[in-house]
TrEMBL record, chain A:
<keyword id="KW-0597">Phosphoprotein</keyword>
<keyword id="KW-0808">Transferase</keyword>
<dbReference type="InterPro" id="IPR008207">
    <property type="entry name" value="Sig_transdc_His_kin_Hpt_dom"/>
</dbReference>
<dbReference type="InterPro" id="IPR036641">
    <property type="entry name" value="HPT_dom_sf"/>
</dbReference>
<keyword id="KW-0902">Two-component regulatory system</keyword>
<dbReference type="GO" id="GO:0004672">
    <property type="term" value="F:protein kinase activity"/>
</dbReference>
<feature type="domain" description="HPt">
    <location>
        <begin position="14"/>
        <end position="105"/>
    </location>
</feature>
UniProtKB/TrEMBL annotation, chain B:
<dbReference type="InterPro" id="IPR001789">
    <property type="entry name" value="Sig_transdc_resp-reg_receiver"/>
</dbReference>
<protein>
    <submittedName>
        <fullName>Chemotaxis protein CheY</fullName>
    </submittedName>
</protein>
<dbReference type="InterPro" id="IPR036457">
    <property type="entry name" value="PPM-type-like_dom_sf"/>
</dbReference>
<dbReference type="Pfam" id="PF07228">
    <property type="entry name" value="SpoIIE"/>
</dbReference>
<dbReference type="GO" id="GO:0000160">
    <property type="term" value="P:phosphorelay signal transduction system"/>
</dbReference>
<feature type="domain" description="Response regulatory">
    <location>
        <begin position="12"/>
        <end position="128"/>
    </location>
</feature>
<dbReference type="GO" id="GO:0016791">
    <property type="term" value="F:phosphatase activity"/>
</dbReference>
TrEMBL record, chain C:
<dbReference type="InterPro" id="IPR036513">
    <property type="entry name" value="STAS_dom_sf"/>
</dbReference>
<dbReference type="InterPro" id="IPR002645">
    <property type="entry name" value="STAS_dom"/>
</dbReference>
<dbReference type="Pfam" id="PF13466">
    <property type="entry name" value="STAS_2"/>
</dbReference>
<dbReference type="InterPro" id="IPR058548">
    <property type="entry name" value="MlaB-like_STAS"/>
</dbReference>
<protein>
    <submittedName>
        <fullName>Anti-anti-sigma factor</fullName>
    </submittedName>
</protein>
<feature type="domain" description="STAS">
    <location>
        <begin position="3"/>
        <end position="101"/>
    </location>
</feature>
<dbReference type="GO" id="GO:0043856">
    <property type="term" value="F:anti-sigma factor antagonist activity"/>
</dbReference>
Length: 112, 572, 101
């Protein structure tokens, strides 16, 4: 599971629940996540703020099936000060992958 | 994901969540389940929306900017007051400390991320059931409170009306009565009445209706009316009891009745006459000797027997000045301790024995009850009447509304009451009513009644029944006297009492001559009149009273005929 | 509290046994027990062997029973009463209406 960037089963479930709103959900997630990654970068020095952002980000990533992203957020939430810098960088990279995959999913829905 | 719990009823649900994707996802799920959704993206906004829209249920993210979910939850719970607004925390928190924090803030449940729509629907339904249950409980509580208040109001009104009737007697005015009654004793069925007869005797009734509440109180009104009406007119205990019994038997259902003690305390005769049907024993307390004579229940309660079967026999006990009569309700004896042991008559007698200050008897009893039970019951009634000297004679009859123009002033009338009538009829109230047609006599109605009562009972008891007044010299003889009186009256088949009334106008007003004759042996007038007045009072014929109250007294026919006069001045 | 009834083989005697407290809460049960018996029995026995407590509304219920059973013509026995219960019956002089043993 650690390697799952995007859980297709979760997405299938979401599509069923959201019906026509499914693309908007994906779009909202991507937009929201972009804001949070930006916020993580600006808050590098503030451990308390970092943890809170990571907590929220973990929740929405989990809900949307971005399993690895959620896991990294959870680690950041618990991390000691020395590990924080490395984890923020990992989240940054993971989101780049997630973004590409979810944009692909969006295209698939529209084409499909 | 298509399996969903059925929705009971569409609710308005507030979702507070700062993550836009989660908010969109959750509100879509909830809306699909048939509910109406309100949203907020931080705690402060959630409180604001709640205040404005009053949703049924709240889904709240724990960690949010501006105001977090814990603080928002606390405020919303406070705003909701007594109503249950279920609050489910949305959380990816895992640590038990954080979960406990959610509960402390007033959360009712959790929903873990990632969301599972089936579990969410089930939780919403479960919380909705709780919410309805609480609403029903509150509604019923308010209804009960309203009914209770209404009932108390009714009781207050009923009590106010009843107090006017009940206190028309002398219960609060007489200096020789002390009583203790719980404020709402009426609604425990307890009833305490007292009034003077025209001759200054005092009638007291302590009653206890079956049951509680209004049903127990309804019989009190007619009973009080009979008591006051007949006492004021000069009827004795027997007639009053018969009337009360007949009235209650007629109006009450078969399973309702009234235990009662009715007594007549006479300073003039130094006697207390008692009828007890179903009440606990009261006591006559002889102050000189400390002796307590129990006043036992000898009869069925009022309202049980038909008029034909009713037994109006009373007992008469001698009393001296300062002696006390004590009556109580069963609430005193039935006070139970933690082990359901009853206080009982034995313990009451111990309180009597230990009592050093007679005026503190009630307090002693209350203390003993409190010590026995831990608290005092709210349905006890106690009354104590002391025999006092010089109860002034007073006109207690009804107020007269006529002008006096039609008042009869020149007439005479004679009655002969024969054996069969003497047995069962008391003509005094009738005669008194007749004589009070004369306005000038109304001021003296008390004296008039007392004199008539003395002369009539002398004629009946010493004349027709041949009873020797000297029997009454001691307590034993006293009881013997009244036993013989009942016995001889029951078997009476000859004899008479005649009453002649002559009313003549004079220059200044008028004169009433009242002659009473009997068929007895007569008596030695000279010798009886020569007795010292002290003996006369207890065992004599009340002759000193007669001489004191009327303007002229004379005997003839060897003591078989006595004549008294009353004079009055014309009204201005 | 419970109220139990038993009708004798010949149908002439109805026995009503009251267990526990005999007070207003047994009102309806007590009535149901005798009102449903036809033909009316010649004699009614009220068995208080297992009666722990009795108040004035129980006395009222006995009067109702007596009324139902024919009033002055009714023959009702009250049996097995404890000393406390007997005291209550004695103060009210119910022995004048019921055969109390």
């Amino acid at each position: 599971m650690i390697d799952v960037h995007m859980d297709p089963q979760v997405l299938a479930g979401l599509q069923e629940v959201m019906e026509g709103e499914y693309p908007r959900l994906l779009d909202t997630f991507l937009h929201d996540s972009e804001e949070r990654v930006k916020a993580l970068r600006t808050a590098r020095g503030d451990t308390q703020a970092l943890r809170q952002i990571a907590h929220s980000f973990k929740g929405s990533s989990g809900n949307l099936g971005a399993v690895r992203l959620a896991l990294l957020c959870q680690r950041l939430e618990m991390a000691s000060a020395g590990d924080i810098g490395g984890l923020v960088d990992q989240i940054d990279r993971e989101f780049a992958v997630v973004r590409a995959m979810y944009e692909g999913e969006l295209r698939r829905v529209f084409v499909g | 994901m298509s399996v969903q719990a059925p929705v009971l009823e569409a609710l308005t649900i507030l979702i507070a969540e700062d993550s836009a994707a989660d908010l969109l996802l959750l509100s879509t799920i909830v809306r699909r389940q048939g509910h109406q959704v309100l949203t907020a993206t931080n705690g402060a906004e959630a409180v604001e929306v709640f205040t404005r829209e009053r949703p049924h249920l709240v889904l709240m993210d724990a960690l949010m900017p501006v105001m977090d979910g814990f603080e928002a939850a606390r405020r919303i719970k406070q705003l909701a007051g007594e109503a249950l607004v279920p609050l489910i925390f949305l959380t990816s928190l895992r640590e038990s400390e954080a979960l406990a924090q959610c509960l402390d803030a007033g959360g009712d449940d959790f929903l873990a991320k990632p969301y599972n729509p089936v579990i969410l629907a089930a939780k919403i339904n479960a919380m909705d059931r709780l919410r309805r249950l609480q609403a029903t409980v509150l509604q019923q509580r308010d209804l009960i409170a309203k009914h209770h208040e209404y009932l108390l109001h009714e009781q207050r009104v009923a009590k106010a009306v009843f107090d006017k009737v009940a206190h028309s007697g002398c219960i609060n005015a007489a200096p020789n009565i002390r009583y203790l009654q719980s404020p709402y004793a009426l609604f425990n069925g307890d009833l305490l009445l007292a009034a003077y007869t025209p001759s200054g005797d005092m009638h007291v009734l302590l009653g206890d209706f079956t049951g509680h509440g209004l049903p127990a109180a309804v019989g009190a009104m007619p009973l009080a009316e009979v008591f006051y009406g007949m006492t004021a007119k000069g009827y004795g205990l027997a007639q009053t009891l018969r009337e009360m019994n007949a009235k209650l038997k007629r109006i009450l259902p078969a399973d309702m009745f009234c235990c009662a003690t009715l007594l007549c305390l006479s300073t003039q005769r130094r006697a207390v006459e008692v009828w007890n049907g179903g009440m606990p024993e009261g006591y006559v307390h002889e102050v000189a000797t400390g002796k307590r004579t129990p006043l036992m229940s000898r009869h069925l309660p009022l309202g049980v027997l038909s008029a034909e079967q009713f037994d109006d026999r009373t007992e008469v006990w001698p009393v001296a000045l300062g002696d006390r009569v004590f009556l109580l309700s069963d609430g005193v004896l039935d006070t139970a301790d933690a082990n359901e042991q009853l206080f009982g008559a034995e313990r009451l007698l111990q309180v009597f024995a230990a009592n050093r200050e007679p005026d503190r008897l009630f307090e002693d009893i209350e203390q003993a009850l409190a010590a026995f039970r831990g608290q005092v019951r709210d349905d006890i009634s106690m009354v104590e009447i002391t025999l006092q000297a010089g109860q002034s004679l007073r006109a207690t009859g009804p107020l007269y509304a006529d002008s006096g123009q039609s008042c009869p002033l020149d007439w005479s009338v004679s009655f002969e009451f024969r054996a069969d009538t003497l047995k069962r009829y008391d003509p005094l109230p009738y005669l008194l009513q007749l004589l009070l047609e004369i306005h000038g006599l109304r001021e003296q109605s008390g004296a008039l009644y007392s004199v008539m009562a003395e002369l009539y009972s002398n004629a009946l008891e010493h004349g027709v029944l041949g009873l020797d007044s000297r029997l009454k010299r001691d307590a034993e003889g006293f009881a013997q006297y009244y036993r013989l009186r009942n016995e001889r009256l029951t078997h009476l088949d000859t004899g008479f009492v005649r009453v002649h009334v002559q009313v003549v106008p004079t220059d200044t007003g008028g004169t009433l001559s009242l002659r009473v004759e009997d068929s007895g042996q007569g008596f030695d007038v000279e010798r009886v009149l020569a007795r010292p007045p002290d003996i006369d009072r207890l065992s004599g014929r009340g002759l000193s009273l007669v001489r004191q109250l009327s303007s002229a007294v004379g005997w003839s026919d060897g003591g078989r005929s006595v004549c008294v006069e009353f004079c009055w001045k014309a009204l201005a | 509290m419970s109220v139990e009834k038993k009708v004798s083989m010949d149908g002439k005697t109805l026995t009503i046994a009251i267990k526990g407290r005999f007070d207003f809460s047994s009102h309806q049960d007590f009535r149901n027990v005798y009102e449903g018996v036809y033909p009316k029995p010649e004699m009614v026995v009220v068995d208080l062997k297992e009666t722990t407590y009795m108040d004035s509304s129980a006395l009222g219920m006995l009067l109702l029973l007596r009324d139902h059973a024919g009033g002055d013509k009714a023959y009702i026995r009250v049996v097995n009463s404890s000393s406390d219960v007997r005291k209550i019956l004695a103060i009210s002089n119910f022995d004048k209406l019921f055969d109390i043993e």
